Amino acid sequence: MERLSDTQYWFVVAAGLLTPMLTFWIIDIVGWVLRRTLWRHPEMPPQLGPKPACDEPAGVAAPPG
Q1: What residue ranges do the domains of the chain occupy?
Q2: What is the average pLDDT across 45-59?
Q3: Dist. CA 4–CA 36, nearest whole Å
Q4: What is the pTM of this model?
Q5: What's the whole-number mean pLDDT along residues 8-36?
């Protein structure tokens, strides 16, 4: 078997080190696409600010009438 040249050796080392990073990058992109397409709720408007804790003021509600 023939030995690798220094340049070929460093290409192999770089590819081996970058493979996990590229894998997680691809997984991140696939997850982002799936979140944007599969789990979209078109009947709900997008939330633009912090959600209020309650729509009604605190306290006891007034009796009807």
Answers
A1: 1-39
A2: 63
A3: 45
A4: 0.44
A5: 91
